[in-house]
Amino acid sequence: MPDYRRGSYSQKDALTLAEYQIILQDASANGIMCLELSGEGEPLLSRNLQELIETANRNQLMTTLITNGNTLTGEQTKTFRDNNVTLVFSLHTLDKQKYEQDNHCGGSFDRKIDHINEAVKIYSDTKTQENGYDVYRLAIHATLQRDNLEEIEKLRTFCRERDIFFSVAPLA
User: Fold this and answer.
1) Residue 125 CA neighbour count, 13 Å, CB half
2) Looking at CB atoms within 10 Å, which of 6, 31, 62, 118 has the fewest?
């Protein structure tokens, strides 16, 4: 989705909701099975997010939403769960000072942890097994960087304690 909030795109450059819906319908009709919503700013700030997720679900698309989660509400989380969204929080550190310094936003760490813990409750009955493997619909993803090497085990433990899937990838 174009990040027209930052001024790099004008609103006229963004697809309309109807255009997105047609694309999702066509994708499903042509065998596409998955939709990932991420990047270009924070997906939770998109005015069309709920409608896109509902359209994807109606068209049997498995949706993954990657978010920083700072503005996530309980109602949004319930909507995501009810529309078969796999919710992925990006989190690179459990050090409150480092997190807030990186994000230039005081109070954001505690808010994010609260939103993760609320999502754990809302998604508590969504973990399933398929072909002998656990299938999670709630995850935390970290990007491995020079300044968070010491954090990976703490993040893994944090996830294990909450029964959240944890993934880590190198900085590209």
Assistant:
1) 3
2) 31
CB-CB contact of 69 with 89 (8 Å): yes
CB hemisphere CA count around 73 (13 angstroms): 5
Nearest in space to 24 (alpha carbons), one of 59, 49, 51: 59
Tens of pLDDT along 13-38?
778 999 999 999 999 999 999 999 98
d(CA 161, CA 144): 21
The number of beta carbons lying within 10 Å of the beta carbon of residue 11 is 9
> From CA 3, how far away is CA 9, in angstroms rounded?
6
**Spatial separation of the C-alpha atoms in residues 59 and 54, rounded to whole Å:** 9
Total-model pTM: 0.88
How far CA 78 is from CA of 2, 74, 97, 122, 125, in Å, comes to: 26, 6, 30, 6, 12
Average pLDDT, stretch 136-165?
94
